Amino acid sequence: MTASFSLACRLFFCPCSFPLECPPRAQTLFLSWSLVRARGGSGGGEEGVGVKQTRLLQDAAVHAAGLRARESLRAEPLFHDPYAACLAAINSEDEEDAPSVRANGEPPGLYELATRFIDDTLLGIVKDKASEVRQMVLLTDGMDTRPYRLAWPPSSLIFDVSSDSIYTAASEKLKTVGAKVPRMCLLQHISAEVGEGEGGWGEKLVKMGFRGDRPSVWAMQGLHSLSAEGLKVILGYARSMAMKDSVFVGEVPLSAFGGISQEEASKLLIKMILSNGFDAEVIAHKEIAAGSGLQRAHVQDLDQKGEGLSIIFRAKQLRLSDDQVEFVRQKIEQAEEEGDEEGFEEW
């Protein structure tokens, strides 16, 4: 077990999905990113800080994969991720040193509930024949296996926007276990540190084939370092690029809002989403648990302990995308030109 993985467990995580030196079970993957910067950024100059932060983010993604792997082993799992176990072992140089993933008898945590809700939302949309959604924009930690494990319809174009180094390492590992996207689907990776507020990835999406005049669905999860500025950038791109009626679903770390309460952060998140042209709602973890058939005692336990340090949301685009606006503008100009020509002929 690497030292960086132990450090990441102390900084980020909820309970381990395998036997490791981690704190007692918590209710979230997220902790204030300012603490990560303080621990990971001491010394070494700017380059050293970047390397340490990338390592911590990779360890966070690895741990999340472990949680998905453990959930997949339960008798009645919320979801099944056949590729998570190999990603949970990605930091192990020797297979014998890889952490063993096993079910521990505990009910699902908040991360697993969020994963189930996002999965269900995505699949519900693409299975709706009336929606005709064939563009999926996934803002991820680089180890999201949804492109491989979800049943995407033919001709789907899936975009994974994430850290290049983490995504590359995960892709190489996934190849060894035969992970492939569904037949007649295409997966495109967009390199960007979206959690840090990096821009430019929207333009990359367009170059990779994304079209704002066609339906799309957007999802985000695993952005452990997400800042308020990063969230503004994400919502800004979704506002201008997502076609009217497109759905955006995701999980946001409470730390993105600077240490305010869960209730205050939820209100601020809704306000930010509404200001970008979406209708939005916050989904309580206990609602997902109740709707997933979990025992009432576990649902009540979630209610008593609070929602943790992440917020789940679902939003729907109410405005036209920039591409749609441009299409309407061109049609108006065309109609005006044709009208002028007809008027001239009559005169």
Automatic annotation (TrEMBL):
Taxonomy, superkingdom: Eukaryota
Pfam families found in the cross-reference section: LCM (PF04072)
UniProt-listed InterPro entries: Ppm1/Ppm2/Tcmp, SAM-dependent_MTases_sf
UniProt keyword Ubl conjugation present: no
UniProt keyword Oxidoreductase present: no
Keywords attached to this entry: Methyltransferase, Transferase
Signal peptide: none
Gene3D superfamilies: Vaccinia Virus protein VP39 (3.40.50.150)
PANTHER family, per database record: S-ADENOSYL-L-METHIONINE-DEPENDENT METHYLTRANSFERASE YKTD-RELATED (PTHR43619), S-ADENOSYL-L-METHIONINE-DEPENDENT METHYLTRANSFERASES SUPERFAMILY PROTEIN (PTHR43619:SF2)
Name assigned to this protein: S-adenosyl-L-methionine-dependent methyltransferase
Originating organism: Sphagnum jensenii
Origin organism lineage: Eukaryota, Viridiplantae, Streptophyta, Embryophyta, Bryophyta
